[in-house]
Amino acid sequence: MKTYAGIPEENATLENSKVMLVTVPYDGTSTWGKGADKGPELFLNASENMELYDIETGTEPYLKGVYLAGEVSENSTPEAMTEAVYQKTKELLNNDKLFTLFGGEHSVSIGSIRAVGEKFENLTVLQLDAHTDLRPEFHGSTSNHACAVFEANQKHNLVQVGIRSMDVEEVEYLPEGRVFFAHEIANNENWINDVLEKVSGNVYITIDLDAFDPSIAPSTGTPEPGGLQWYPTLELLRKVFEKCNVVAFDIVELMDSPMAKPSAFLASKLYYKMLAYYHIYNNN
User: Fold this and answer.
1) 106 annotated ligand binder
2) Which positions make up the signal peptide (predicted)?
3) 250 is in an annotated binding site
4) Residue 225: CATH number of its domain
5) What's the structural domain count of the chain?
6) 210 is annotated as contributing to ligand binding
7) In Å, how far are 29, 60, 146, 165, 222 from 32, measured between CA atoms?
8) 142-161 pLDDT, tens per residue?
9) How far is CA 246 from CA 1, 11, 255, in A?
10) What pTM, to 2 d.p., does this model score?
């Protein structure tokens, strides 16, 4: 039995786990760097080589259990993939455990956010990303990676952090007062508290790894200079878990490349840190 991070089987059953992990190895609409379909495999392999004691919190999050809830492999069309992720998420949310997803390109988040938004009222979607991803459609599809949070912005309270690249057509769709551009973050010592003021209640966190500066996460589809750094990002995430009810999160856009290991390990540590924060603030 293959388990997350190679943890003991007793910590990897649905019954014994507080967390469910779905993988979606989809890379059907990316327009530059290809290889995000290998992201889940890279992430899981890196996780097996990670120490399972978290120094910052003094905890071992895996003891709360992580259940590998399967892979969504539908890739015939972007819309079919979105529907398959939606149905898988909707099914798993009945278990009342933390839902987590690892992509794949960012379009995989459309279906999971849709399902989570149907279950939880007053949802805030916190997006860490280099790109706005607010196009209504792109290349003939509403399920393109460039449209990843358009629907979320229409239905929920979208907060965007780390943005530093967008098309002019997306300007009209920007969530007013809830976009934290990277160049503004760089000159604002209080940016984390400013973000927290906009995030409340039930929260879905979606993290495109290109939110990070390419100096620490180069293996992603469209790396952009001037990104987020490790410790400030962790501080933001920890405070979000402390303040709000995080009901689900995803990490996307880990891309295969000759230098994929540092980015894969960053993604693995990031996922595990988020589990640590979830458990200490949910007392479970």
Assistant:
1) yes
2) none
3) no
4) 3.40.800.10
5) 1
6) yes
7) 9, 38, 12, 14, 7
8) 999 999 999 999 999 999 99
9) 29, 22, 26
10) 0.97
